[in-house]
Input
Amino acid sequence: MDKLIIEGGVKLKGEVTVSGAKNAVLPILAATLLTDEPCLIKGVPNLRDTNSMLKILRSLGKFAEFDKGKVSIAAGKTSSYIAEYKLVSTMRASFCVLGPLLGKLKKAKVSLPGGCIIGVRPVDLHLKGMRALGAQISIDSGYVLAQATKLRGAYIYLGGVYGSSVLATDNVMMAAVLARGKTVIESAACEPEVVDLAEFLIKMGAKIKGHGTPVIEIEGVKYLQGAEHLIIPDRIEAGTLVLASLITGGDVLIKNVRYQHLGALIDKLQEAGANLERSDTALRVKGGRKLRSVNITTLPYPGFPTDMQAQMMSLMSVTPGISVITEKIYPDRFMHVAELNRMGAQIQREGPHAIVEGIKSLSGAPVMASDLRASAGLVLAGLAARGKTSVSRIYHLERGYEFIEKKLINLGAKVWREKE
Ligand code: UD1
Output
């Protein structure tokens, strides 16, 4: 296992380009199971999670090649309906092969993904959606078995205790595109990644309306064709780079940004007094201004993303004043609090809230990454800290940030990898 060593205190400067969105590419790759025709997906980030999804597609009979940001899926049938535990357990998003397998083959056996460090993460909404479309669902030996003689369009209320679900919306949408008749998904997730998946499905011949709103309407079609698609830029990577520039007092031009996908983050940063200059598809972030602390509450899109909570906490830990950070999607997603406190941060957790008292500076320390976005938060803290920080279990970061070390080094950061 590798750890990342960061010599903090360097102001990041230069230009960086955001990669394709992890959370868009994973369901879009799964959607290729819905057709026997070839597909070409462009702007694909080279991530551990992308490679995990490709392994799953291959295990289901697809011939998939990944080269220079492009995934080509050859013509050929989806020949297996079983997604095995050893593949699904590496990544929760692999559960989104359930919808396309059920839609295409009317049968799917997919390992339950299990919990993870950020919380329990059930799949009840996914199963509710599949049942509403007419599937029989049973759970046996850790697998979900879903089957139907035919799927029928239905009205499905998909809201849960924490609001809408991104992957459940993806999964139900992918099952419904080949169902007979009309499906209405109410309380659908509005995330840009759901919209990107819907756009890809439409290119394949699906009839979908309302994506990007809480009510998605799908008119089932008989078959889907192959399609070509360019993945949207990763808004979480973009947001993380914005904060990297701010926390180091740097001056960074971030390219390949969809400004409108970053609304909640930009609004909070403007409230904090950050200097952000927008151009067509880029964002220039100049640090150096004194920031004020702000409160944030994570919410489904277009609210403040839970996937930016850890990174924002790092910024607030060195911003004067008190900031209250409330987590409304995963109330236990606070593993990074103890690690930031090891670097001198003053953060107190109270249930789903973290109360952050901004201090002058953090000091480098050995810390441990617990999940993908917590790792990003710790890397930001390390970039700002005095002295050396080592972030263990850096494989978490590789799940979601393409070439992150290289990108940071190009911006002047002193970052390198060592064996644990
Ligand atoms: C997706 C993202 C992840 C992000 C999360 C929330 C992908 C691959 N991952 O995960 O990066 O952190 O959205 O924005 O896109 N829930 C239920 N029942 C279900 C499903 C979810 O109660 O059947 C709950 C979850 O426990 C959580 C909330 O709903 O509290 C939102 O989760 P969800 O949107 O489903 O997260 P993912 O789609 O797994």
Notes: The mean pLDDT is 96. The pocket of uridine-diphosphate-N-acetylglucosamine is lined by residues 23, 26, 92-93, 119, 121-126, 160-162, 165-168, 189, 193, 306-307, 329-330 (CB under 6 Å).
